[in-house]
């Protein structure tokens, strides 16, 4: 036990699962088992240093947050929900302290100093400032023929960047609740359509070309197409369909679990930053009395 790494930030999801001897598809009973493991490390029961109990508690809390988000995802089948780390845990409200601090004449300086010290940078903060200043991808056409040719070239370029991964089901939230970032575009069924500004300008055409048509099976007429579809229906095997669907669901559940773990770790970081910020606020307000 003394050789265990007690820095929880060094642990991946698989590391924590191995710590509690759990599989990726852990359920409520597995969470009870993990909790018993944590309790067994309590100093009163194990005679271990309290730091081990604190470490296992942190590991369990991460795992529990993953479980909560993943289970909620499974229930909200028809809800257009985007999960954020703020949904995972509740934060202590220091509103009264903030009110007292805001009345000070040097509030702006205090706020700016605290912001620089405690701000949390994420991947969404990078923006497209450098891209907006560039004009390398600006295309000009002098006539209709040149415009058509530019569009064909753009489609071919985008088509070469897209990896086709078969037909997949699509939910109302574009599948971005847990498995993707999901903050830079709207659902295709939304009445308010929006997109990331760079995506809107760089992917302004649908990358479907004549090559897509040529790569598919060709039919001489509608009758041959119908016969082929009827033949495919006759060869349909329900067992194969169920097996494929089960594998897809298992893969999705695993992806959701990894995403939930990422949110849980982000939440741990948020809580630490909030504690530090709250400590600073309380020190300032107490010293000003």
From TrEMBL:
Residues 238-257 have a biased composition (Basic and acidic residues). Residues 212-259 are annotated as: Disordered. This is J domain-containing protein. It comes from viral metagenome.
């Amino acid at each position: 036990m003394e050789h265990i790494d007690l820095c929880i930030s060094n642990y991946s999801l698989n590391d924590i699962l191995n710590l509690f001897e759990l599989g990726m598809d852990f359920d409520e009973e597995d969470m009870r088992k993990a909790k018993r493991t944590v309790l067994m490390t309590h100093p009163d029961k194990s005679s271990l240093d309290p730091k081990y109990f604190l470490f296992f508690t942190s590991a369990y809390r991460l795992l529990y947050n993953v479980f909560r988000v993943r289970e909620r995802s499974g229930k909200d089948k028809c809800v257009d929900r985007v999960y954020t780390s703020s949904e995972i845990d509740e934060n202590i409200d220091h509103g009264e302290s903030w009110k007292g601090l805001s009345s000070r004449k040097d509030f702006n300086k205090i706020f700016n100093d605290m912001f620089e010290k405690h701000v949390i940078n994420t991947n969404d903060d990078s923006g497209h400032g450098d891209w907006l200043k560039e004009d390398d991808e600006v295309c000009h056409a002098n006539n209709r023929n040149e415009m058509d040719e530019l569009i064909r070239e753009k489609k071919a370029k985008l088509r070469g960047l897209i990896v086709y991964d078969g037909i997949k089901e699509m939910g109302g939230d574009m599948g971005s609740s847990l498995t993707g970032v999901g903050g830079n575009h709207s659902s295709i069924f939304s009445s308010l359509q929006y997109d990331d500004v760079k995506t809107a300008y760089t992917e302004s055409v649908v990358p479907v070309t004549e090559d897509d048509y040529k790569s598919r099976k060709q039919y001489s007429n509608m009758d041959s197409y119908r016969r082929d579809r009827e033949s495919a229906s006759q060869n349909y095997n329900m067992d194969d369909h169920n097996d494929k669907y089960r594998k897809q669901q298992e893969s999705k559940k695993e992806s959701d679990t990894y995403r939930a773990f990422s949110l849980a770790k982000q939440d741990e970081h948020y809580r630490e930053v909030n504690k530090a910020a709250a400590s600073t606020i309380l020190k300032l307000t107490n010293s000003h009395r």
